């Protein structure tokens, strides 16, 4: 068994244990393998171990990986469902067409302008682009995301756009080693989602939790955890 396969098995066991501790079913939680900066060989190794959902932060890097199909894999997630591709990084206007035409999910919408461009540029022959609104729950200037008080209006506007299917919220809280401090922003995101649902906008997704805090996220209701380092190891940005 490869190191990546071993790591995947360990992460799945963590997810299952955390789900059971929270009184939830492990099958309620999607494992999204964050493959940014990692080579295609690592992605194929994870796919051989049963991983199907991959997250990329850089639009072109992800598309470059999708358009290669060695060993019989169909990698373009927006067209083929063998592997699905999620865009999870900050999205600028000049990259929306690339994302709209190639990805199955976008987790990081923070402005209506970006959603409108994705809507207009999603090819009609593809299924709706599944999207989440990113919320800056920690209020960090260095983090993307809309302010919590603006989330309802943004979700209401996005929910009316053709070519998009609003699924939920995403957050990247400030890192902490304290379990209680980890849970607080995840709880806040869940409560924001609850308030948006109460206002009549259906949401079923909370994209939250990474390698160091997935247990806290699952305890607070995460439905997608975004795991990179615990699967692929530390990243090399050089």
UniProtKB/TrEMBL annotation:
Gene3D superfamilies linked: Alanine racemase
Q: Pfam families, alphabetically?
A: Ala_racemase_N
Where does the source fall among the domains of life? Bacteria
Q: Which residues form the Alanine racemase N-terminal domain?
A: 7-235
InterPro entries per the UniProt record, alphabetical? Ala_racemase_N, PLP-binding_barrel, PyrdxlP_homeostasis
Q: Which cofactor does it need?
A: pyridoxal 5'-phosphate
What is this protein called in UniProt?
A: Pyridoxal phosphate homeostasis protein
């Amino acid at each position: 068994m490869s190191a990546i396969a071993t790591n995947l098995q360990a992460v799945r066991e963590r997810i299952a244990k955390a789900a059971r501790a929270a009184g939830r079913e492990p099958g309620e939680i999607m494992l999204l393998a964050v493959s940014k900066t990692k080579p295609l060989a690592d992605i194929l190794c994870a796919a051989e171990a049963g991983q199907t959902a991959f997250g990329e932060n850089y639009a072109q890097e992800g598309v470059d990986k999708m358009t290669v199909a060695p060993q019989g894999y169909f990698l373009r997630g927006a067209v083929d469902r063998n592997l699905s591709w999620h865009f999870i990084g900050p999205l600028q206007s000049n990259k929306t067409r690339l994302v709209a035409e190639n990805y199955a999910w976008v987790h990081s919408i923070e402005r209506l302008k970006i959603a409108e461009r994705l809507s207009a540029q999603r090819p009609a022959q593809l299924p709706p682009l599944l999207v989440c609104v990113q919320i800056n729950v920690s209020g960090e200037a260095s983090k993307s995301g809309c302010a919590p008080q603006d989330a309802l209006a943004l979700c209401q506007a996005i929910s009316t756009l053709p070519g998009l299917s609003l699924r939920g919220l995403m957050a990247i809280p400030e890192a902490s080693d304290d379990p209680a401090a980890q849970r607080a922003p995840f709880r806040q995101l869940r409560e924001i989602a609850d308030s948006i649902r109460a206002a009549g906008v259906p949401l079923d997704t909370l994209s939250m939790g990474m390698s160091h805090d997935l247990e806290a996220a699952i305890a607070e209701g995460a439905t997608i955890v975004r795991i990179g380092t615990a699967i692929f190891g530390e990243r090399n940005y050089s």
